[in-house]
Structure formats: C-alpha cells, structure tokens
Design a protein that fits this description.
- The complex is a heterodimer of chains A (151) and B (262).
- By secondary structure, chain A is an alpha+beta fold.
- Chain A is built from five helices and five strands.
- In chain A, strand 3 and strand 4 (53-56) form a beta hairpin.
- The longest helix of chain A is centred in the C-terminal third of the chain and has 15 residues, at 136-150.
- Chain B is α+β, with helices and mostly antiparallel strands and 262 residues long.
- Classes of the chains: A alpha+beta (151), B alpha+beta (262).
- At the A-B interface, strand 4 and helix 3 of A face strand 1, strand 3 and helix 5 of B.
Chain lengths: 151, 262
C-alpha cells in the first residue's frame, strides 16, 4: 500500500506493508538518523516525535502515522546541536547510537515539564538506554542545558 | 507478524461489523503487536474513532479505549480523585515513549498477566463497556473473557475511591514480579493481585474479612494480607519462583491496605 507521511514538515510518499513499523519505513526513505536498536520496544533508540510527543517508532505502525506530524532528529537540528554542546562538554556521548532518540526525548521533556527536578529528568528519560555513559554525564548535561535555556 | 489487510473504519459500528462479520482483529495501542506470533488477515484500526478521553459521567469516570497510558498518568481529573495512583501504577512501565502508545483498551483486551494497569482497575471495581452496550465487570472479563468477537468502547471506574498500588520489580522499567492494588470504595474494600505471573485476580476471602468499615486494625490488615496469599495461586517464571511470590504477596497487600487506611 502507498502511504503519505509528514516528516520534518515535508510530505513524503512510501510503499509499505500494512504491518510494517514506522522505523522500517522511515529508514527506507533515507531517514537513517532513526536508529534501529532493540527493535522490541525497550531501548528508545528509535524514538521519534509524533505530533510533538515521543513514541517508539519500532512499535508504531507506519500506516497509522498518516495524518500526523513526524519529527526525527533532523527536524530539530538547531535545538539538537545546542543540546549536543552540553553533552560534549560533560563527556556524555560516546558511540552516539542512542543520541538521536535520547536528544528527541530531552527536547520533548523540555516542552512538557516545567522546571523538572533530577528525579523528574531520570524518570522521563528512563526509556532511553545508553550502554556507554552510565547516565551521570547525561544528567549533568541536561541540567546545565535546561538552566541555560531558562536563563 | 504480518497484516494482510488494514482498515481504518469511521464509526464504532463499522468497526464492530468488520470484527463480527469479517473476523477482523481490532488494533489498540500496538505496543506489543510485534511480539504477536499470529498473522492478521484483517486489522481494524481503532485510531480516529474518538475513543481518546477521560471524562466524568454522573457518579463515574469514563475512559475511552484508545486513551494512552501517558494520558492516564498525566490526567488532572484522575489525580484529583485518586491522588498519585495512576502515576505510581504506570510510571514504571518502560518509558514515556511506550506509554504514549499503549492504550487502556489494548491492555484490557489482552488480559496480560504482567499488567499493572489491569490490577489497579480491578481494585477500583472497573467495568468494561463492549460494543454494542454490554457492560461486564473487569475482574470477570479478565478471568473468563467473553465468547466470540468483541470490541471495547470504554472503561468505567467510580468517580471517587481511595486506592493504593504496590509492586515488586527486579529492576526499574522491567515487568513486575508481582503487583497489588487495594481500594476503599466508600462501601467495601477491594484487593487485586496481578503478575502472579498469571493475570489480575481478586481476593474475595481477604475482602470479606475486611468488612464494610473504613477503619481497619493492624491485626485485621495482617490477617487479610495472609488470607490473600493463601487464597491465590502463584506460579514460577524467569523473574521469580512461586514460593517467592507467595512470600512477598502478604507484604505488598499489607502495604497497600495501610496506605489506603492512612
């Protein structure tokens, strides 16, 4: 079947099977910034925003995304680059595989939560697994990023 | 899992007819769909039918079948009536991204053993409203299901209840080893236990022991907690043995009852 998707503000058409998940279709369209991690709904690497809300694209049917605004990390490039400066400064990024999904969740959290505590941040980010950093650097980076954004 | 044909009906009645006449399978949140072993000849997408709501209706609250976990977790209405109950019950489940997908209807329909939400809803005395208009007690639905094809429209819970949710997990965001919810509805005490690892089950003997008064003594709570453990069966799986579940069950029931009493 042919579906029409709104990806980062642009309309794209794709042929897909009815049971295909969004990750597969996005990557086939060239959006390889959407990472295929565990592919079982656990790691958060495949996170995209659907109408501004973070979802697991590996567990969401591509056909169901029709009529909704899909945002990958490329769609928020400017904000992501700003956040990346803080990650780099804190040594909070290593292999980078989890970074696109992780950064999207952070940006969604920034819009959804007002003045989150460290516990709020850890809770909101619980669905984004990172096997390199041990999370401490990421938490420092997020707190400093939010402080700078709210200054 | 493969879907042969996908349909997005425009009305609930159309969806129901496709399920009954063409043996279509309704799609809830699809969070667990990829783990589904069978192929689906016909998938009926319930998105777009207006089943995403949490609203007051007389002396109850109605929750549409396509309402997500995250919507329950962040609902001001639910928080005003039940305190942090839904935050506590749902906040341990994977991450925000999954909770923005998973729906109450899909969870109820799946009758999943690991479900934290079903245990909590059972304790609240939730009812399941099926199209066209049949109402069934959630605890009964989880135990016996319904014969033949069905479509869930909404879940109904009382407008007020004092309730507590308790759980044990090996690690954060994992499936629970055991979960317990207890509630005082104003007229009765209700206790549900799930992830045994079988699905949520009420504890009628323990509930009868608690009687119909809001005040409970420590001794009564302890006796009810042990009664709940004695009357329920537990099993073993990769996460815990039946013996371990039996051992922690009274502690979780006791904590839940004490929290509600307070």
């Amino acid at each position: 079947m042919i579906i029409t998707l709104d990806i980062n503000g642009k309309t794209e058409r794709a042929e897909c099977a009815p049971g295909e998940m969004l990750t597969e279709v996005l990557r086939r369209l060239g959006h390889v910034e959407v990472k295929k991690g565990c592919d079982t709904g656990n790691c958060g690497a495949c996170t995209v925003l659907l109408d501004g809300k973070p979802i697991l694209s590996c567990s969401f049917l591509a056909v169901r995304a029709e009529g909704h605004a899909i945002t990958t990390i490329q769609g928020v490039e400017h904000e992501a680059k700003e956040f990346a400066k803080f990650l780099t400064a804190e040594g909070a990024d290593q292999c980078g595989f989890c970074a696109p999904g992780f950064a999207l969740t952070v940006l969604a959290m920034k819009k959804e939560l007002t003045d989150p505590s460290e516990a709020d941040i850890r809770h909101y980010l619980a669905g984004n697994l990172c096997r390199c950093t041990g999370y401490e650097g990421q938490i420092r980076a997020i707190k400093k990023y939010l402080e700078a954004e709210n200054a | 899992m493969e879907i042969q044909e996908y349909v997005r009906p425009k009305t609930l009645d159309e969806a129901y007819q496709l399920i009954v006449q063409k043996r279509g399978t309704p799609l809830g949140g699809t969070a667990w769909l990829r783990t589904y072993a069978k192929n689906l000849p016909l998938a009926i997408d319930l998105a777009g039918l207006g089943l995403e709501y949490i609203r007051e209706a007389h002396d109850s609250i109605e929750i549409g079948a396509m309402t997500t976990y995250r919507e329950l977790e962040t609902s001001m209405l639910l928080e005003s009536r039940f305190g942090p109950l839904f935050k506590k019950c749902l906040g341990h489940i994977v991450g925000v991204q999954l909770r923005n997908i998973a729906t109450v209807g899909g969870t109820v329909a799946g009758r999943y053993g690991f479900s934290d939400l079903n245990t909590t809803l059972c304790a609240l005395g939730a009812k399941v409203v099926l199209v066209p208009g049949k109402v069934i007690d959630l605890a009964e639905f989880i135990m016996g299901g319904v014969s033949g094809p069905f479509l869930i429209e909404k879940i109904i819970i009382p407008a007020y209840a004092k309730a507590s949710y308790q759980q044990m997990r090996i690690s954060a965001t994992d499936f629970p080893i055991l979960n317990v919810a207890a509630a005082w509805t104003g007229t009765e005490w209700r206790i549900a236990v799930g992830a045994r690892p079988a699905a949520s089950h009420m504890c009628p003997k323990a509930m009868a022991l608690l009687g119909h008064s809001a005040s409970l003594s420590d001794e009564t709570i302890s006796r009810a907690a042990q009664t709940a453990a004695d009357e329920l069966q537990c099993g073993s799986d990769i996460r815990a043995s039946a013996e371990y579940r039996k051992a922690i069950l009274p502690a979780l029931v006791r904590r839940a009852l004490m929290e509600v009493r307070a």
